[in-house]
Structures are given as structure tokens and as C-alpha cells.
Amino acid sequence: AQTVTQSQPEMSVQEAETVTLSCTYDTSESDYYLFWYKQPPSRQMILVIRQEAYKQQNATENRFSVNFQKAAKSFSLKISDSQLGDAAMYFCAYRKYSGGGADGLTFGKGTHLIIQP
Amino acid sequence: EAEVAQSPRYKITEKSQAVAFWCDPISGHATLYWYRQILGQGPELLVQFQDESVVDDSQLPKDRFSAERLKGVDSTLKIQPAELGDSAMYLCASSRTSASYNEQFFGPGTRLTVL
């Protein structure tokens, strides 16, 4: 079974600075997808960024970028120019490649990100 | 913007009672997921539907949990009887199809407290 580990229960960063959230995973699959989701307090979970394992190029979405190291099974999220609205729980998630079958997400335990004004 | 709807948002019940949660996915989304999120943990998949068919219910405690999606649109998750350990947030998500690259959109969740 796949597992996802987030070793940082909580991170704190000053507004406008950069922060990196760590994630490692374990799988025997070669094709899969990795995601970072954001869960603000009392609001629904939203997708921040996604990475296909077959792509060597790291995904970027505006201020959010990932460092995907397939051999090391590492998938970290970098948030540049942190904003107050970035405060939330961040979950790293794994999804096996599926042509239409079972493909639920496997989540880590999350990292609580605090933005200091 | 279309969203996944869930109700109720909050539910308090006593142990041994029955509870039910409802989910209405984004229109046109064929795949629907129910996840359980215990406080301080990440969500765990309970069941996945493709249209009205169950694709994966390997983590669903079938002695007390049941889920249905009769017409392939909205879905109901039931617990009977509820136990103290069932206290959690129950999240519903949907995606256009079950192809892995498709984004899963999450609803606001139902927070269940079992007394």
C-alpha cells in the first residue's frame, strides 16, 4: 500500500517570505500523480498544484512550485512571497495511475502553515 | 462556479443511533468519493463510485457503514449504529471521470460528533 509522510506538523513564516513544506511517499508504482491540497479553516479543500510522475519538469502555479525527486520519493512544496491568505492546512496526496478504476487519493497527515504578519 | 454540496454541515448524535449524510456532486461529474477525516489527520478514502457503481469500498467498515448512489448523481452515506470513534469530518469529492489526471473537487464536509 502507498503511504504519504509529512514530517512537519506545523510551519511558521513571515509574510512575504518563502517557505517549503516537505513530503515523502512510498510506492512500488512507476506511474502516479502527486498533489498538494490546501484546507483553510472551515472551508473546503482545494487543489494547489499537481505533478505527473512521468514528467521530469517540476510543476509551478504562480507563487507555488514543487521540487519533485522521483528517485528519492520526495515532493516538497515551495510557497514564495507568502501571503496571509496562504494560512491553512496543507496536505500532500498520492494517486496511482488509473485508466478508469480505483483511484482515490492517499493523503499525508498535513502541515499547519502559519503566516506571521 | 459549480461546487460540491453536502448536508448537513454539522451533526451531533448519540452512539448506537443511525446517521446519514448527503452529497450532490458537480453536475456532469461521473465519479464520486467519500472520505473520512479524523481530527489532526489527512482524509482517508471510504468509497468511490463511478456513476451508480461502486469502484472501491475496500476501506468502508461494511458492518456499520453503507453508501449508495442510486441514479448516479447524488449520494448518501449512512452509519448504523454510530460509535464514538466515528466522530470525524466526512468529505465528499467528485471528478469528471476517474482518470487519474482529473482534479477531485471537495465539498465543505459534514462534521459528525458522536456522544
Structure description:
In chain A, strands 2, 5, 6, 10, 11 and 12 form a 6-stranded mixed sheet that branches. A 4-stranded antiparallel sheet of chain A has the order 3-9-8-7, with no helix packed on it. Chain A is 0% helix and 51% strand. Chain A is globular, with a radius of gyration of 14 Å. Chain A has strands at 3-5, 10-14, 19-21, 24-26, 32-39, 46-52, 60-61, 64-69, 74-79, 88-96, 106-107, 111-116. In chain B, strand 5 (44-50) and strand 6 (53-56) form a beta hairpin. Chain B is mostly beta strands. In chain B, the strands form 2 sheets. In chain B, strands 2, 4, 5, 6, 9, 10 and 11 form a 7-stranded mixed sheet that branches. In chain B, strands 1-3-8-7 form a 4-stranded antiparallel sheet, with no helix packed on it. Classes of the chains: A mainly beta (117), B mainly beta (115).
Any key phrases for this structure?
A: six-stranded mixed beta sheet; four-stranded antiparallel beta sheet; 51% strand; B: 115 residues; seven-stranded mixed beta sheet
Arithmetic mean pLDDT of chain B: 94
Radius of gyration of chain B: 13 Å
Percent strand of chain A:
over 45%
Query: What's the overall geometry of chain B?
Result: globular
Assembly of the depicted chains: heterodimer
Query: Percent of residues of chain A in helical segments?
Result: under 10%
H and E order of chain B: EEEEEEEEEEE
The helix/strand order of chain A is EEEEEEEEEEEE
Largest beta-sheet details of chain B: 7 strands, mixed
Q: Quote the distance from N terminus to C terminus of chain B.
A: 37 Å
Which structural class matches the secondary elements of chain B?
mainly beta
The biggest beta sheet of chain A reads:
6 strands, mixed
| Number of DSSP-assigned strands of chain B | 11
Strand content of chain B: over 45%
